Amino acid sequence: MSAFSALAALFLALLLLTGCGGHKRTSARVPVAPPAPDFQLSIPANAKAIYVETGIASWYGPPYHNRRAANGEIFDMHQPTAAHRTLPLNSIVRVTNLSGGRSIVVRITDRGPFIAGRVLDLSEAAAQQIDIWRSGTGRVRIEVLQAPVPIATGGRWAVQVGAFENASVAGHLRQKLAHDYRDARILQFSGPTGEWIRIRIPEDNRQRAELIARQTRPAQGAAFLVRLD
User: What pTM value is reported for the model?
Assistant: First the structure.
């Protein structure tokens, strides 16, 4: 047998051993975010706001990074996005830090913040851009430049209650709410910050959702009006 033939036979034997008796290396499947549409390219520099709001903004990153956002995309804290409770998903807004004047254009991809007194949750990258990352919060002006659907009419509405540290406490409240609002659909689910309850309003009646949000006073957390679309 020639040296070449011997080497070929040895290689074939090693290949067979690897395929039959060796351990295959496994790899974790990481969710891949769909490509985000570049809405900003279609916004003129002199675009006028169709809705304006001021309030306190905060920011979020871990433990939400790489989790699915409300619009179905995978949240990337390094991209210029934000969470708002009631603006239509995929709206394009300009956010300006009223202390210093720095601004950024972001897309609304998620729901939140679910902390009383705050109106917007910026991604970590967006918070760094307008200089509220170190302070944690800042007073901002929100100017909606584009919205995929009307802001003042329509929408799918719910009330979100939480967060609860104890699942049994959330369960007791869910049972009470199911008794009080028999025609509503009451859901309980887990999130990165604890247990949550969502009240789905029949026929997406926003006025009734607002009333339920005002009337609900949980022992933990708070109740928030949320637009689901």
Answer: 0.80
